[in-house]
Inverse folding.
């Protein structure tokens, strides 16, 4: 396709989410090539990034997930090489990848997010349970796709949950459980796409149910009243703006039984697999997968 030049689709990488990234990247690559884009696969786990400059790539579609791809490091390398790339820049990518600091920015901006505690080896486990109540979600601060995450339903499970999460990250969060509906809201440039309601078996939206089973139900449209969904879309847009996000991304949130929203996390390089939520939402908005990939790519930029 004229005007887009030689394009590298970055996928794979070295993070714990490599398998998901491979699925995302292959789907994006096939869509771009079908649209006539001069697009090529590029796995940073197998080739040094400086090759992008040497081989004349003019823009990059980032389909990497997790650390080493979604955390600002690849974005910084591309900035130095002067190659435009999709998604958020260095600062917003690094910030959104850090669930703790994301929460601090949201709280400072008056945006709702569940209460939390930082867990360490010397944590008073009983005090955390007393403060946050049960259940509690324990998760690494710098991982996605539910990697290393545990839903703790009894006080004596908390330390084991921390030990599991600590295998993935030195920084581990315990987050209060909000009983309600799980929603996700993709955004594309300055537009929030239709919300998706996630209904997982027994409320367990884990790694397996996200990517490898058909047991999870996704409702899009989500079933909320239009005025209520509009309020949530505005909240999601603000949550992205205060983090400095751009291009595209996806915010995850919980709507409590009382109708109050709580922001959970921001994804700056969301999944693009057959089970992924951004393509699902975009389709409801009238944007098929190929057109979605093109629009994201057209928004590639520096700075």
């Amino acid at each position: 396709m004229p005007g887009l030049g030689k394009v590298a689709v970055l996928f794979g990488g070295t993070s714990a989410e490599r398998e998901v990234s491979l699925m995302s990247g292959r789907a994006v690559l096939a869509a771009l090539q079908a649209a006539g884009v001069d697009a090529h696969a590029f796995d940073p786990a197998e080739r040094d990034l400086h090759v992008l400059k040497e081989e004349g790539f003019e823009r990059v579609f980032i389909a990497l997930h997790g650390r080493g791809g979604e955390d600002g490091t690849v974005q910084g390398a591309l900035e130095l090489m002067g190659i435009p790339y999709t998604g958020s820049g260095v600062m917003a990518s690094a910030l959104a990848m850090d669930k703790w600091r994301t929460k601090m920015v949201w709280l400072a901006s008056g945006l709702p997010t569940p209460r939390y505690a930082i867990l360490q080896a010397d944590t008073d486990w009983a005090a955390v349970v007393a403060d946050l109540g049960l259940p509690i979600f324990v998760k690494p601060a710098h991982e996605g796709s539910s990697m290393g995450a545990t839903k703790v339903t009894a006080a004596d499970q908390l330390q084991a949950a921390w030990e599991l999460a600590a295998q993935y990250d030195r920084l581990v969060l315990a987050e209060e459980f909000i009983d309600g509906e799980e929603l996700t809201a993709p955004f594309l440039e300055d537009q929030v796409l239709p919300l998706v309601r996630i209904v997982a078996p027994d409320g367990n939206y884990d790694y397996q149910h996200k990517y490898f089973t058909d047991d999870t139900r996704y409702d899009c449209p989500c079933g909320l009243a239009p005025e209520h969904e509009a309020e949530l879309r505005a909240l999601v847009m603000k949550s992205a703006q205060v983090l400095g996000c751009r291009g595209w991304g996806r915010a995850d949130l919980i709507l409590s039984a009382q109708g109050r929203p709580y922001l959970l996390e921001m994804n700056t390089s969301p999944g693009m697999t057959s089970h992924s939520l951004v393509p699902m939402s975009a389709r409801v908005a009238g944007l098929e997968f190929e057109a979605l990939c093109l629009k994201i790519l057209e928004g590639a930029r520096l700075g």
Q: What stands out?
A: The CA atoms of residues 10 and 42 lie 5 Å apart. The chain is about 35% helix and 20% strand. The chain has three domains: 6-87, 95-112+179-297, 116-176.
